[in-house]
Amino acid sequence: AGIHDQKMMRGNGGELHQTAGDGTPVLTTAQGGPVADDQNSLRVGARGPLLVDDFHFREKIFHFDHERIPERVVHARGYGAHGFFETYESLAAYTRADIFQRAGEKTPAFVRFSTVAGNKGSFDLARDVRGFAVKLYTQEGNWDIVGNNIPVFFIQDAIRFPDMVHAVKQEPDRGFPQAQSAHDNFWDFISLTPESMHMIMWIMSDRAIPRSFRFMEGFGVHTFRLVNAKGETTFVKFHWKPKLGLQSVAWNEAVKINGADPDYHRRDLWNAIQAGNFPEWELCLQLFDQDFADGFDFDILDPTKIIPEEVLPAKPVGRLVLDRMPDNFFAETEQVAFMTQSVPPGIDFSNDPLLQGRNFSYLDTQLKRLGSPNFTHIPINAPKCPFHHFQQDGHMAMRNPVGRANYQPNSWGEGPRESPADGFPHFPAEEQGRKARLRPESFADHYSQARQFYISQTPPEQRHIAAALTFELSKVETPVIRERMVSHLMNIDETLANTVAAKLGFRSMPEPADAAVPTRQDLDPSPALSIVQR
Ligand code: HEM
């Protein structure tokens, strides 16, 4: 009787549903068995022990015990939304990518914004770079532009990434801090890494405490290639520009907001989209060729450099609109798997050593995090275009080859075949050189663009940078690290260096830093050594 009065009803599609008497569905086990009592375990007597034949309790607790998957090793805290990308005009002259062939074409998109350093439960308004990862479900497969809201990066070579991330996250002995850059390990690594100085200027600026995701730019960071149907290539940098413009909070606002509402950025995106205020970005391209690249005194393969838009304007080629929140945070925002190596024909890579390392890393991380090579079977990761392959089996396989043939070529006339004309062509760049671990001389200038960024800021923005550096370095307990940082600032802007040094109580200024990455010998921990030796 009552709510357990179970009946079978036919749904709209004629399917049978188990329903309780009032028309609501009956609670079932994962095997579909109807549940009579979900409140009390099976036991002997009112105060007796529980019984192992309570398969409903066993299954319910078993599933709960396995709810967590590893959080992302970086960018653990994120928030996503669905939308679409609309192409403004054909870019066939530059790329054969189907997404750019027809004006007005709309491509489904999913975007995940994130902080980098904090764990999944950290607060939104940390001083940090924000991830800006875009998955475009094109007719030729998924294209992931896995970018950030800052156009440059800390390091020039992916081999340094594990060290950089170890240094930025919580210190291994004490387990803090998180989502907060002010600590000795972070500033130790940075002070020993002159190539990070340009990024540090951006991180200390208001860009690192955005008012909301809707007021942020996004950048592909690296130089990529476009390749057209004739096989001609153009270098490209990808930029997302918010229709609402750029806005940040002040540091004291960020600190208060983090205490009062750690989900501030999530709430903002949710509220905006639910209210129909769909945030929008324009995709803008900086397009250039090898001759143009050769005209710079920096290397366009160096991810710590930008190409100034005053020199090369960014051409708007389409718009990204976010208009729908996920139905389920875990299924979509958590399980989405971005990978820099997911590119359609017509988009290709440059020899940026950070990009090439990333292309290797993301597949590994998705296997670790999602647990099966079949992570592309999860709906948020599956392509939305037709796809056919012979990959089979493995944990949680939702799709296997149909029919007899699971290989090609075969004599049965079954299954897909490769297509030289349509398939991804890999741009046939000519490469030669000696095999060695080295960094080109063209990657050596670490200060010019840091200085240009600082100078480009308005006086209040410059004061914010000085205040941020002072606050951060005042938390650093090891004097030599502070001195090393001030010695780098002297190469960026002397007034900035003097201001920070004065606020930190320096009695005299150190020598300007050497740009070279310090050697073991430089790091001799003898007490006499107060700054990196030159
Ligand atoms: C995750 C951007 C450098 C490895 C991410 C995410 C973004 C991102 C946006 C979060 C994706 C999401 O929302 O799910 C960048 C940018 C970089 C950079 C812009 C430099 C320009 C690197 C490098 C490596 C790396 C050099 C390794 C060699 C990872 C890993 C994850 C990640 C392992 C976690 C992915 C996951 O578990 O889903 N990165 N990253 N990243 N990145 Fe990077």
UniProtKB/TrEMBL annotation:
It is an enzyme of class 1 (oxidoreductase). Its EC number is 1.11.1.6. The keyword Transmembrane does not apply. Its cofactor is heme. Keywords: Heme, Hydrogen peroxide, Iron, Metal-binding, Oxidoreductase, Peroxidase. The keyword Iron applies. It comes from the Bacteria. Residues 28-416 form the Catalase core domain. Residues 1-41 are annotated as: Disordered. It catalyses: 2 H2O2 = O2 + 2 H2O. Belongs to the catalase family. HPII subfamily. Decomposes hydrogen peroxide into water and oxygen; serves to protect cells from the toxic effects of hydrogen peroxide. This is Catalase.
